[in-house]
Every structure is written in C-alpha cells, then in structure tokens.
Write a structure and sequence with these properties.
The complex is a heterodimer of chains A (555) and B (359). Chain A has 555 residues and is mainly alpha-helical. Helix content of chain A is 73%, strand content 0%. In chain B, strands 6, 7, 8, 9, 10, 11 and 13 form a seven-stranded mixed beta sheet that branches. A six-stranded mixed beta sheet of chain B has the order 2-1-3-12-5-4, with helices on both faces. In chain B, α2 crosses α12, α6 runs parallel beside α9 and α9 crosses α15. Chain B is built from 15 helices and 13 strands. The longest helix of chain B is centred in the N-terminal third of the chain and has 15 residues. The N and C termini of chain B lie far apart (91 Å). The chains are: A mainly alpha (555), B alpha/beta (359). Chains A and B meet through α14, α21 and α27 of A and α3, β2, α4, α5 and β8 of B.
C-alpha cells in the first residue's frame, strides 16, 4: 500500500472521529445548544461542572470502579484465555460460547438478573435467609458494583488475549516445556508476556469502558446512593429542566481527556514491539499443554467464574421470564407461567426487531471489520507519525458515553450538509456503530498483525509480489484469527448497542435494544426477561456455530 | 361520442379518480382529503408501542390511506430529536405526544405548535387545552402502589396525611421500604413533586418522613413497580396509575391506592408541529385521540385513563370523579408549569429536597 493510500486511510479515520467529537468540543464552550440562535460563547459550562462537588465525587467513584474492574478482569481474562487456547482443559469447546454471554447481554438486563437472583429479596438471597437466617452479601454496594463490573468484563480481556495466543508459534512454548517448565510457569513467563500488547490493549479499553458503564451503576449503584460519571450525566439531562447539552459536553470531554495518558502509557510500554512477533516461517502442529495436576483447580476456577458471572444473572433473568410474580412471600411453584413468552410474541415489531439486530450485527459487523482491516493494514509496517496519531484517534469515540454519542451522531447527520442525506438510511447507523467500536475492532486485527514476522512478507516481496498482493495472499490469511475474533466481538457489540444509534433508528429499523428500552418504560421486566432469554439463546447458538467453524479452520 | 356523453364519461371517470370526495368517516372530509394527498404521518411519542397498538389499528381502520410512522421514544429523546431537527430544517415529527408536560408546554410556548381548533374541544375540560396549540389527552391519577402480600391492611396509606403518619408510627416496618421518583434525575418525578408542594401544605413534612424512613429514589416506574412487586419495597409513592393497572393484570398482589385527601391528575400532552410536513394527517390523529371513539379504545384496550367525560367505564375521568370527586387535582395544561423549568427555582427545590432527605 503506498503512502498516499495509507495517509488517506488515516485521514478518513480522523474525519469520522473528529466529526462528532468536534461538535461536542464546540458545544462545551457555548451557553446552550449550539443550534439555538441565542447561543453564545461562554465558560459557564466548565465553571459549573468543574466546581460541582457532585461531579468530583462521580469522577472519583468512576475512577475506583474502572481501576477495580481492570484489576479483576484483565488477569482473570488472560488466565482463562491461556487455559482455553493453550492447554488441554476439558470441555473447552462448548464452554466458549457461555464465556461470551456477558458481552452481548444488555447491561440493564444483566443488572436486573443479579437483582432477581441475589438482590435483597432475590431467589438465592431468600434461600440463604431460609438456610442461615441472613443474607451475607449486599448487591447494592461499591464492592458489589466493582466485582460484578470486573467479572462481566473478563470476556473482553479473554477475547483479545485468546486471539493473540492462538496466533502464537507453539515452538516457544515447546522449547520451554522441553526445558522442564510446568504449565503455570510457561503461562506466566512465556505465553502471556508474548501477548503483552493484547493484555495492555484490553486493560486500557476496559479501563475506558469502566467510565462508560451506565446500566450497571444505574441499577446497582443508584439504590446505594452511588453516582458515577454516566449517571451524573443522566442527572444533567433533567437537573435543569431541559437537557443541558453544554454541561453534558464538558462531562463527556472529561472522559475523553483520559484517553491521552492511557494511550501514551500503552505506547511507552510497547516501544519494543518487534519482540512480540512470533508467527515465523516454520510451521508446526499445535499440541495443547498438559495441565496434569492443575487440571481440576483450573476447571474449578472456570466453573466458579462462570457460576458467578453467567449462571447467576442468567438464572435470574430466566426465572423472571417464567414467573408472574417473585420475591418475598411468593411460592415459586405457584407462579410459574409461559404467559410472558406468549405476550412477547404478540408484541408489535418483535420479530422484525430481532431480525434487524442480528442482521446489523452480522452484516454490518462484517463490513465494519472490513473497514478496520483496511485501517489496520494501512498502519501495518509503516514507520510514520501518522500511526501514533491513529493510536490516539481510535480510542476517542469509545470514550464518549452512550448518552452523548447518540446525540453527537444525530447532530453530525443533521448539520453536516455533505452527510445529511444519509441520515434516514441504515448507512448512517452503520457509520455511527463503526466509528464507536473502532478501537475494539481495530485492536484485535492490529494485535494479530503484530504477531506476523516480517520475513514472511519480505519473502513474498522478494519473489516480486506487489504490496497489495503481499497483503492479500500472505498477511491477511495469517491474521484470519484476528479477523474472526474481531468479527465475533463486533457482532456481539452491535447486538447489544442501543444508545449510539438511538436517534438514527426509526420504525422499520428498531433493534432489541430499543425494544428493551420501550418495554422498560412501562415496567414490563417480565417481557424484557423473556426477550433476553430468546436473545441469549439465538446469539449463543450463532456463537457456538461460529466458534465451531473457527476451530476447524485452525487445524 | 356526442359532447354530452363525453362530459358524462369524464364526470364518471373523474368521480372514480377522486375517491376521497366520497362521503368518509372523517367529520372534516377536507382535512381527510388533504391528508390523503400527504399520504403519511410521523409521530414522536412516549406512549409505548404495545399500549398504542389498539389506537393505531383503530385509526388505520378509519383512514386506511394514511401511512403512520410511529416512533416510540422516551420524553428526553423526543425533545432532543425535535429541537435539533427543527433547527436543522429537516423533516421532523408532525405529531408530538409526550408524558413530559413541562417539556411539551415549553416547546409549544416557544412557537413550535400549530394553532388548530380541534372539533373535539367541546368534549374536553377547559384546563386541558392551551391556546388551541397544546392538548391534554389523558386523565391519569398519580397514585400509590403497594405490595398486598407484605403490607398489612392497616399500614396501607389512604391519603398523603397517612404517608406522613404511618412511617412515624411504624418506623421498623417502613425502613428502606418506600420507593419514589428522584426529582433530580426524573422530569416527571420533579413535576409531580412540585405539584404536590403546590397543593399539599405539609409536603415538606412528607419529604422529611421519606428521608427518615430511608426511602430509595429511582428514575423509572418500571424499576419501582418491579421492586414493590418483589417485596424489596412495600410501597411506591407517586406512580402513574395506568402503569399500576397494567401490572395488576399479571400480578394479583399489586395494590393501587388513589389518595383520598387529594389525587394529582396528570395528562399526556400532544401538539402538532407548526412546520409539520403532514399537518392534515396530524390533525386527523389529534381529532381521533380526543374523540369519544379514540378515548374509549384508549381506556378499554390500552388501560390508559381517558379524559373525556362521556367515555364509559372505570378507567375514565367519569369513573375517577365518581370515586374521588373534588379530591382530583388535575395539573393544568398551561404555561404555569413552566415555572418549574426556571433554573433558579428548580435548583432551589432540589436543595430543599436534598436537605429533607438528609443525603
């Protein structure tokens, strides 16, 4: 790819990122909505937010949640990735789809699943009360919030690290094994250090996601009086009567500002990225590392994580979908019903909503991954300042909280004349989604690209292949796991998405997220639960098939 | 063909080319004809798809030529989208129907609403119509929901005075068991509380009682009803009655109290956009929603309390008036409620509220 095309790709990314971000930045310096004729330049928004004690405490709480979350999810996710990708852990084939459930389940549904299961009058809580007289845990607490946030973000770390691990040359691990190292030692000193880029990327992305959490803190934090930045933002939409865009913009920018030190740290730690490339010229059959005595402790760890993170909320959600009433004083056997599923079936636009969601996820996601691959290749093996710019650019959109992102894209498609005609088409939705998940999709591909040793591509070039063909016949096939992983992750993110495209959706393009929000408005938690059960079943099934296909491609 | 026959043929053909000129179900066939030319109607509404479905079906049977694009959005989304699209001059909703009375009146008072005297005005109370621009469409009581399983009958508050007295008499029963709206985060919650403060002299005593019983505040009706149903809370204060009715259909242990000393009545406000691209379709829909036929469907099928006094049944203004009479205090559809949108007054109320809740 020549310089011109590469620069064009980076410029393209800059344009789509600075569109919405630039508007938010501009808005923060105004006295009211930028499209009101009475708006004028003012620092009032900054003054209000930066001197508000509510903002300070919300920022502090978000910081604690993000840090705690990252410290829990990254080590656990990396360990699980190693166990499933490199060892002979029993049952890993059917385990993997379950591992990914927290990613595509709507956070509000997940949170309510916990409330139904382990809340003050949850199923498990009432059993505990009956057995030992009290409930030894408190769901509505900072600790509970951090723990659940951390555990439910393990799959994010898992996906990144596992994808990179699968591309590792087994020769390095074999060498360590031959030298007599045990599995634990190999994991800590050989495999995981080799995928340090993926570990660091997932750490910084999860840290940023911590600031963006909304559903979990809303359901679990509010009753404890805990405010995080996103729920503080939510407060700002109502506090002054009409939504105060200028204040919201300042809060959003306070999170965006965090990306700069994050990316800088990341880049510093990975300055010597060359040593991570291990897809060399020699092919070798992959033999999983035997766990031996560590087998059952490993299985126990996995099952424990699954139980707390997946089984508990899913049981909560599923039970809620099958009962007409729950909680204290309710006899389970008396309230079982299939009525909610029947009612759901009659809900307007249900089937269309589910189909739309899956199509947008699969097709839209696939197209997005294509875009990410182009951008990834543009930055690949390119010694240029533009690449460092790209590192910062891609993180920025994800730093915008959901409440703002939807507004920002509405404004972009309304007020930027060149793209305005796209607003009523699905294309605008696709652009919005692609931009927001840029960092995620791109990183999986970049991490895989890092694993490819230059000698393979050089060999192709020496035999006379032009750069384009080198990418097509050598690089792309070698990073197919990164592409597959990226497509899988993006599919699940798109399935869960709602706030990004809320103003770009319309009748005919409603998605599961909008159905859930609409149902939530009338308090139809029972229908929401039924819908979520269907969603998990469908997406889980699709995942299972995809992973089976992925596994067979590997051999 | 002779001239006379040609004229006759032309007339007959012309007659069949313009079916809208035939007698129609519409009272004003002129509007219907114009609406047919427009062909479409875009609605932004906070009434959820399931509740509105019977209304839309019935409306479609009346005007099958009209393609209705119904956007189910929450009240903030309606506002955000409408102001931005209007400012950009692109297509936006023709008909806006939202539970956020204050936001709707704000938009209407800023000149966004079309002046249209609906023929149905004669069937509506005077307080429900503002300058022929903004219309109240429902008559929904602001109620107390409670858990029949767990709250003993003598502890169920029947009035606002009870809400102050009972938690004081039985502090252990009510500790952390009351739920209500967070006025800081919920526009609807704020509106209801400021109206409470207007009508009930001891409102701040009530707020302090909520504080001393460690009441929990929420932003959504759904969350509150779910928690009352499960027993995490025993009662929820200031819940819109229509949602409790919906819940009662499935959960027999959900109780509903319409406070006897006074019950606020809240109304979903509708207006037609002044720059609507399909104003006639919007007029037809407004007339329908305000008509006896539409209000009856609303009451019987959607379980939303209807406004017109001639609608049969209990989920109606007449039904409520029979039970509560003068205790009903409707929130007038006019610019008085815009006082609540004034920043200084709003923040003042929040400060008082925070102090009362001792948070």
């Amino acid at each position: 790819m020549n310089r011109a095309l590469r620069s064009l790709a980076v410029l393209g990314v800059a344009l789509v990122v600075f569109g919405p971000l630039g508007l938010i930045f501009y808005q923060s310096f105004l006295s009211e909505a930028f499209f009101f004729p009475t708006a004028h330049l003012s620092f009032e928004a900054y003054r209000y937010v930066l001197t508000d004690s509510g903002f300070h405490s919300a920022f502090g709480t978000s910081l604690i949640v993000s840090l705690g979350m990252t410290l829990i999810s990254v080590p656990l996710g990396s360990l699980l990735a190693f166990l499933l990708a490199r060892t002979d852990l029993p049952g890993k084939k059917w385990l993997e789809p379950w591992l990914l459930v927290p990613i595509f389940l709507s956070p509000v549904v997940l949170a309510f699943g916990y409330v139904v299961a382990v809340g003050p009058v949850g199923f498990f809580s009432l059993w505990s009360k009956a057995l030992i007289g009290r409930v030894p845990w408190n769901l509505y607490s900072l600790f509970g919030l951090v723990l659940i946030a951390g555990l439910t973000h393990v799959p994010h770390a898992f996906l990144y690290v596992s994808s990179a691990l699968r591309s590792l040359d087994p020769a390095v691990e074999e060498a360590a094994r031959v030298a007599g190292a045990g599995v634990w030692r190999i994991a800590l000193t050989v495999s995981l250090p080799l995928v340090l880029p993926s570990i660091l990327f997932s750490a910084s992305l999860i840290f940023l996601l911590g600031f963006e959490l909304f559903g979990l803190p809303l359901v679990l934090g509010d009753p404890a009086g805990l405010l995080v930045l996103t729920t503080y933002l939510y407060k700002l939409t109502n506090l002054l009567g009409v939504p105060s865009y200028h204040l919201m913009a300042v809060v959003a920018l306070s999170i965006v500002v965090l990306t700069f030190p994050l990316v800088y740290l990341q880049r510093r730690m990975l300055r010597t990225a060359g040593r991570f490339a291990v897809i060399g010229g020699k092919g070798q059959a992959f033999r999983p590392l035997p766990l031996g005595a560590l087998r059952w402790p490993a299985v126990f760890l996995l099952v424990l994580w699954l139980a707390v993170t997946v089984v508990v909320p899913l049981v909560g959600v599923t039970l809620r979908s099958l009962v007409s009433s729950w909680g204290e004083g309710v006899k389970l056997t008396e309230v079982l019903t299939l009525g909610h599923f029947r009612d759901l079936w009659g809900y307007p636009n249900l089937v269309r909503g589910i189909v739309n969601t899956l199509l947008i996820g699969a097709i839209g996601g696939g197209l997005s991954v294509g875009f990410y691959a182009i951008v990834g290749l543009a930055a690949h093996r390119w010694q240029s300042r533009w690449v460092s710019l790209l590192d910062y650019l891609v993180m920025l959109p994800r730093a915008l909280p959901g409440l703002i992102v939807g507004l920002a894209f509405l404004w972009v498609f309304l007020f930027f004349k060149p793209v305005a005609p796209l607003r009523t088409t699905l294309f605008s939705l696709w652009i919005a989604y692609t931009v927001v998940w840029l960092a995620y999709g791109l990183r999986l591909i970049s991490a895989s690209l890092l694993q490819v040793k230059p000698e393979l591509e050089e060999a192709a070039r020496i035999t006379g292949a032009p750069q384009g063909e080198v990418f097509r016949y050598v690089t792309l096939p070698l990073i197919r796991f990164g592409l597959m992983g990226s497509w899988l992750l993006i599919f699940m993110m798109f399935v869960r998405e709602y706030s990004t495209g809320v103003y770009l959706l319309g009748p005919g393009t409603e998605v599961i997220g909008s159905l859930i929000v609409s149902l939530f408005g009338t308090g139809a938690l029972d229908l929401i639960s039924a819908l979520s059960v269907i969603e998990v079943a469908l997406v889980g099934f699709i995942l299972f098939i995809a992973l089976r296909l992925g596994v067979s491609l590997h051999a | 063909m002779k001239i006379k026959q040609k004229v006759l043929l032309a007339f007959v053909l012309g007659f069949f080319c313009f079916p809208s000129l035939r007698a129609d179900a519409a009272e004003s066939s002129g509007t219907a004809a114009a609406a047919q030319k427009e062909g479409k109607l875009v609605i932004y509404s906070s009434t959820d798809s399931a509740s509105v479905e019977p209304l839309l079906q019935d409306f479609k049977s009346l005007y099958p030529f009209l393609q209705v694009e119904y956007n189910d959005l929450n009240t903030t989304e309606i506002y955000n989208r409408f102001v931005a699209e209007t400012a950009a001059g692109t297509g936006t909703a023709d008909f806006l129907w939202s539970s956020a009375m204050d936001l709707q009146l704000q938009l209407a008072s800023k000149g966004n609403a079309l002046s249209y005297a609906s023929p149905e005005i004669s069937g509506l109370p005077k307080w429900a119509v503002w300058q022929n621009q903004a219309y109240g469409t429902t008559f929904e009581p602001v109620s107390i929901a409670y858990n029949k399983r767990l709250l003993p009958a003598d502890a169920v508050p029947q009035s606002h005075a009870d809400m102050i007295r009972l938690p004081k008499e039985k502090p252990d029963l009510f500790k952390e068991k009351i739920a209500t709206f967070d006025p800081e985060k919920s526009g609807v919650g704020f509106l209801m509380m400021t109206q409470d403060a207007k009508v009930f002299p001891q409102f701040w005593d009530l707020a302090k009682t909520l504080g001393s019983s460690h009441a929990k505040v929420y932003t959504s009706t759904g969350a509150m009803l779910e928690k009352v149903g499960s027993g995490e809370h025993y009662l929820a204060y200031n819940i819109i009655g229509s949602y409790v009715l919906l819940r009662q259909k499935k959960d027999a242990s959900m109780g509903l109290v319409l406070p006897k000393d006074y019950t606020l009545v809240f109304s979903r406000v509708a207006f037609i956009s002044k720059t609507a691209r399909h104003p006639n379709g919007a007029k037809l829909f407004l007339d329908y929603v305000l008509s006896k036929r539409g209000q009856t469907v609303m009451s019987e099928k959607s379980l939303v309390y209807s406004l017109r006094s001639d609608v049969p049944g209990n989920i109606t203004a007449a039904g409520l008036t029979k039970d509560l009479g003068k205790a009903l205090k409707p929130i007038d559809v006019n610019t008085d409620i815009l006082v609540g949108l004034e920043q200084s007054k709003r923040l003042e109320f929040m400060k008082q509220w925070q102090a009362a809740l001792k948070r």
